[in-house]
Amino acid sequence: MRQSQSKSLKSLFGTFVAHGNPRARSGVGQSPLRPASKLDTTLNAVGTTLQLAKDVGELASQVPYVKAVAAVLSQIIKIRDEIQANKERCNEIIDLVQLKSTTILQSLDSLYRANGVDGFEDLKSDLEAYTDFLQAVVRDELEPFKIQSRWISYVNRGKNASDLQKLERQLDGFRDRFSAKRLVAISIDTRNAFTLLSKPVAASSIISQALPPPPKLVIGRESVVESVVQVILSSPEPRVVILGLGGNGKTTLATTVLHDSRITSAYPTKYFVSSELSLTTELLEIRIANALSIPQNERETDLVSHIVDSIRRSANPVLLYIDNLETVWEVEAEQPKVDQLLELLSGVGRKLAILVTMRGTQGPKTSFSWHSTVLLGLDPPNSITMYEKLSRRPSDASARELLLKLSGSPLAIKLFALMVTEGDSPSQLLSSWNEYGAKALEIGGQHRLSSLEQSIRLSVFSPRINDTARLVLGLISLMPDGLSVSQPWFGLFESVLPDVTLLQSALRALRRAALIDKTGEPSRWQMLSPIRQFCFQLVDSSFPVVVSLVESYIEMVTQSQGYDSDTWRALLPEMANVRGLLLYGSNMRPLPPFIGKAIADYVYGSCQRDIDESAILSTFLSLPIPDNQRAYMYHSLGIVHSRWSRLNIADASFASALMLCIDVEDRLGEAKTRLSIGDLHVRRFQLEAAETSFIGAQEAFLEVQDRLGEARTHKSIGYLHMRRYQPEAAELSFAQALKLYSEVQDRVGEAKTHLSLGHLHIRQDRPEAAAAASACALELFRGVQYRMGEAETRLFIGDLLLRQGRLDAAELSFIRALDLYREVQYRLGEAHTQLSIGALHVGRNQLEAAQSSFACALELYGEIQDRTGEAKTRLLLGDLQLRQDQFDAAARSFSCALKLWSEISSPLGEANIHLSIGNLYVRQGQLDAADTSLNCALDLYCEIQDRMGEAMARKSIGGLQLRRDRLDSADASFTRALELYSEIRFQWGIAYSLGELYLQLDQLDEAERSLQLALNIYASCMESDKEEALANRFIGEVYLRRGQFDDCERVFRRALDLDIATDNQAGQAQSYNALERMFMKKGELVQ
Fold first, then answer.
1. Which residues are bridge partners to 320 per DSSP?
2. pLDDT confidence of residue 106
3. Under a CB-based contact definition with an 8 Å cutoff, are residues 364 and 251 in contact?
C-alpha cells in the first residue's frame, strides 16, 4: 500500500499552490499569488533576502551600486521558478547566494540606518565587483537551465560539489569585505561619532529616542503585565523572557511593561535593542553598543566588556530590553555566543534588569534562571473587544466566526480589523480565510507585522525547525484534531515516517517553537487554526508519506468489524481526523484505493453520532470510484437519509445501490441493500413489500453463507411481525436471531435482540418477561462495555418501571441512562430520555417539570434535526396542555406536530395527531370538527393496517356518537374496536372498553363484570396504579348508579389511595369529585 519514501523531505513543503488574490476587491478579477521560493533552512521562508533588499530601498535610490546588487539578487531568487533543467543543482546555487547575501545586506542596512549614505563611497569598488560576480552567476550558472535541453544537461554534466565549494569560497570573500567590523569603522569615521558621543549628554535625552512608544491598545493582558512588573520589581536580579508564537503580542506586552510608571521609577535608565535581522552575535553586540552610545574608542577591542562597564558606570539601575532575540539565537552557530553574551551581561548583577522577547516556548540556555512567561492567544471575549475597538464597529456573526478561527492571535485580529476599516466586510474576509487561510489577512507588504502569512512563515521555517520537524508539522496539519498520543493512532503515525527515531525530537522542536502543544485528555499534539491553515496549504499531496498517512486511515476505517465492534468504537475519538484525511484524499490523483468504502463507513458512523454527513457522501459520488464501492456509498447514503426521515430520497438511494450490486454481481452487497429496503418498507407500513425484500435478503445471505446477515434479517422480520400484531411469529424470529448472533459471538447483536424481545413482551402485557429480557441485554452490553447499548437498556427499563407505577425506580433508571448518553455524546438518546422523564413528571402531576423536560427534548431534537423526535414531543406537549385545559396552546402543538409528520411522510404520526386533535375538539364541544379529525385518523390507521390505532380511533368515535345519541352507530364502533382489541390480544383494552361502553349504555351488570375483569388483568400483568385507579372510579360509577353506596365509597377511596400513592393530582381531584357526588346523592354531609 505504501509508496516509496525516497523523495526528499524538503519537497513536502516545496511550494505554495498558486491561488487567486484573496484581497481582490474590485470584482474585475483575481491576480495569482506569487509562488513562494524554497526555504533557506538557516533563515526563513519569507524570502529574507528580498525583504532586506526592500528595506534598503531608500538607500538603493541614492546609491546606484547598492540598487544594482538588490536588483540582481531579486533576479536570482525569482529565477528559481523558471528553471526547467538540472533543478537540484540550480536550487543549491540560489540557496547559497541567498544565505551569504543576506548577511551582506544586513550589514549595509545597519550602516545606512546609523549614517545615511555617508561612507558608501568607500565601498563602491567592492559593491561593483559583487554586482559583476552575481551577474556572472546568473549568466553562467542559472540562465542556461531556464529551458529544458538534453544538450545543456550533457555539457554541464561534469559540474559537481567542488564547483559549489568554489562558489561558496568566492561568496565568503565578498562577505568578509562587508564584515560588521569594517562597516562599523566606516560608520564611526564618516559621521564623527566619537566627537558627537563624547560630549556630555543627558541620559534621558538619549534613552527617549531609543525607546518604542507605549502601545495605544492593550486588551486582555492586564494580569500578565502585572505579573511581569512584579517579577522585575521584586527579583534581586530580574531576568525575564516573554515567549510565545509570533503575533501573540510579546512586543506589545514588553513595551507596556517598559512604560509602566513603577518600572520607570525603579529603572530610570532603559534601553531598547531590536534583534530583528541580526543574524550574528557580532551585529547584536553592535546594536546594544549603539543603544548605549558606546564611544568609538571603546568599540575597537572587546566591545562586550565596554558594554558591561558602561552599564556598571550608570548612575541609575538599568533595564535592557532585547526584542526578537530568537532571530540570532536560532542560528545554530550563534546560539552559544548569544548565551555567552547574556551571561556576561548578567554578570553586572542587581543593577541590571534584562527583559527579552523570543518566539517559541524555549528561552536562552544560560547558567542563571529566567522567569519565563509564555503568552497565549486572547480568549473569545477579549478577541471581540479588540476587534471592535480597532474596527470601530460591532462584531456581527461573520466577524465572531472568523475571530474564533484566528485563535486569539492579536496580530491576526489587528489585521482583520484594519482590513474591515479599509472596506472589506467580515463575511468577505471569512470567505477568503476559508479558501486561502493566512494569506487572506494582509495590509500590504511582506513584513511580519503586515502579513499574517509572513509572521507564521518566520516560525515554521526558523532555523530550529529542520526538515523532519516540518514534515511532522505538515502531516499533523492534515489532522483537524491533531496527533493523538494514544495507540493505535500514534503508532500508525510513526509507521508512515521514513525515520521514526527522529519523531520525538521533531515534536519537541515544534513545541519549543510554539507551533504545536499537547492538549486535552487523552493528550493530542495540536496546532492553532492559523498555523494549521498555513501548513495545510503547503503540503504536497503526491508526497509518499502523505499518501501513506491517508491510506493508513482508510485501512483503519474499512477494516473495522462493524459499527458495534470494539474496533469501530476505538475509531470514534478519531472521527474528525478520519473526515479531514478522507476529504484530503478526495483531491489526490490517483484516488487512494477503497476511499469510497471508507467515506461510506465514515458517513454511516457519523450518522450513529447524530451527525448528518450526507452532503459529503453525495460529493464523493461524483468522483471516479469503482461501481462496487459506489454501490456501498449509495447504500450508506440511503441509511443516512432514512435516519433523518428523508424517506423518498432514501428509497432512491437504496434503488441505485441495489442496481449497482446486481450489475457487479455483489451478492453480499445485494443482501444488505435488500435488508435495508425491507426496513424502510416496514417504517412506511408497506408490509407486503417489506416481506418480499426480507425474503430476497435472506436468500442472498444464505447463498454467501453470511450468518451475521441472516441474524439481522431474522431480527428485522421479527419487527415486521410485531407491526402485524403477530407476537408468536415475532418471538420465533427473535429467537432465531438470538441463536445466530450467539453462533457468531456477536454479543452486541445478541443484546439488542433481547431488548427487542423486551419491547414485544410489553406489547403482550408481559412485564416480568420484559424485565427478564432487559436484564439479559444489560448484562451483555456491560460485558462488552458498550455504553450506548447500556444507556438504551436503562431507558427501556425506566419506561417499563414507569408503566408499572414505580416512579422512583424509573427516575433512577432515567438518570443513569441520561448520564451514559452524555458520556458517549449521543444527543438523540439524551433527547429520548428527556422525553421519558417528562412522562414521569406527568405521572407525578408535576406539570411544570414535565413541560421543562419536553422543552429540553425539543431543543436536543432541533439541534440534531430529528423531526420525528420533535413531532413526538409536540404531540406529548399538546396532550399535557390539553390536560391543563390550555386548549389554544394544545391546538398549536398538535398543528406543529401534524406539519412535521406530514413533512417526513409518516402516516402513523399523522394519524396519532388527528386522534389527539379529535379528542381536543370533543373536550371543547366542537363535535363536528371532532368527527372530521377522528375519521381522518381512522382512515390513516386503516391505510397502514395499524389495528391498535384503528381500535383507539373507533373507540373514540363510538364515545362521540354516544354523546350525539347515535346509539346504533356507537354500538357498531365499539363492537369493531372490541374485535380489533381481540385480534391483537389486548385484553386490558377489551375489558376496559366494554366497561366504559356498558356504563354509558346504563347496562350496569355488564359494566361491572367488564371493569372487574380489567382490574383482574391489571393485577396479573402489573399494569400501572394509574390504570387501576381509573378502573376503580368506573366501577364506583356503576355502584353509584345502583345506590350501592358502601361499595361505591370503598372503590372510590381505593382509587383515591392509588392516586395519592402515585402523586396523581388530577386523579385525586377526580376521586374527590366522585366521593363528593356519592355523599350528595346519599344525602350526607360532604366530607
1. 271, 354
2. 66
3. no
Residue 396 has pLDDT above 80, yes or no: yes
**Any bridge partners for residue 360, and if so which?**
244
Three-state DSSP class for residue 430:
helix
Give me the pLDDT at residue 64, please: 58
- Pairing assessment for the beta strands 517-519 and 371-375 based on DSSP bridges: unpaired
Categorize the per-residue pLDDT at 813 as very low, low, confident or very high, splitting at 50, 70 and 90: very high
Amino acid 10: pLDDT: 37
pLDDT at 86 over 70: no
374, containing H or E segment = strand 371-375
The verdict on pTM exceeding 0.70 is no
As a whole number of angstroms, the distance between CA 900 and CA 623 comes to 35
Q: What pLDDT is attached to residue 43?
A: 35
Contact between residue 349 and residue 388 where contact means Cβ atoms under 8 Å apart: no
Report the distance separating Cα 999 and Cα 485, nearest Å. Answer: 72
CA 506 from centre of chain: 26
pLDDT exceeds cutoff 60 at 68: yes
Q: Where are the alpha helices (DSSP H) in 64-122?
A: 64-78, 87-115
Direct distance between the N- and C-terminal alpha carbons of the chain, in angstroms, rounded to an integer? 87
- Cell 382490574 maps to which residue? 1015
pLDDT tens-digit series, residues 748-797: 899 999 999 999 998 877 888 999 999 999 999 999 888 889 999 999 99
Select the more confidently predicted residue: 9 or 1029: 1029
Band of the pLDDT at 1062, cuts 50, 70, 90? low
Reported confidence tier of residue 158, pLDDT bands at 50, 70, 90: very low
Q: What percentage of residues in the chain have a pLDDT greater than 70?
A: 77
The number of C-alpha atoms within 13 Å of 79 and in the hemisphere containing its C-beta is 29
Burial class of 396 by CB neighbour count within 10 A (0 to 12, 13 to 18, 19+): exposed
Buried b (16+ CB within 10 A) or exposed e, 318-348: bbbbbbbbbbbbbbeebbebbbebbeebbeb
List of E strands, 260-369: 269-274, 318-323, 352-359
Helix (H, G, I), strand (E, B) or coil at 845: coil
pLDDT tens track for 481-515: 899 988 888 888 988 888 878 888 889 889 888 88
> Is-contact 532 474, C-beta < 8 A?
no
Decide: 85 and 152 in contact? Cβ < 8 Å: yes
User: Which residues are CB-contacts of 175 (< 8 A; sequence separation ≥ 6)?
Assistant: 100, 103, 104
Amino acid at position 643, single letter: R
3-state helix, strand, coil in the chain (%, to 5): 70, 5, 25
Rg of the Cα atoms in the chain: 40
User: Please, which residues have CB within 8 angstroms of residue 907's CB and are 6 or more apart in sequence?
Assistant: 684, 685, 940, 943, 944
Nearest to 1033 by CA among 1071, 976, 985, 995: 1071
Would you state the pLDDT for residue 1006? 61
Greater confidence (134 vs 338) lies with 338
Helix (H) or strand (E) holding 951: helix 947-963
Q: Are 49 and 73 in contact, with CB atoms under 8 Å apart?
A: yes
Give dist(CA 1002, CA 955) in Å, integer: 17
| 35-39: long-range pairs with CB below 8 Å, 24+ | 35/81, 37/77, 37/78, 37/80, 37/81, 37/94, 38/10, 38/14, 38/80, 38/91, 38/94, 38/95, 39/13, 39/461
Contact residues for 949 (Cβ-Cβ < 8 A; gap 6+): 908, 911, 912, 915, 937, 940, 941
507-556 tens-digit pLDDT: 988 988 888 888 877 789 988 888 888 888 888 888 888 889 999 888 88
Question: C-alpha cell of 42?
Answer: 538557516
Report the C-alpha gap between 157 and 165 in whole angstroms: 17
* Beta-sheet pairing, 524-526 with 483-484: antiparallel
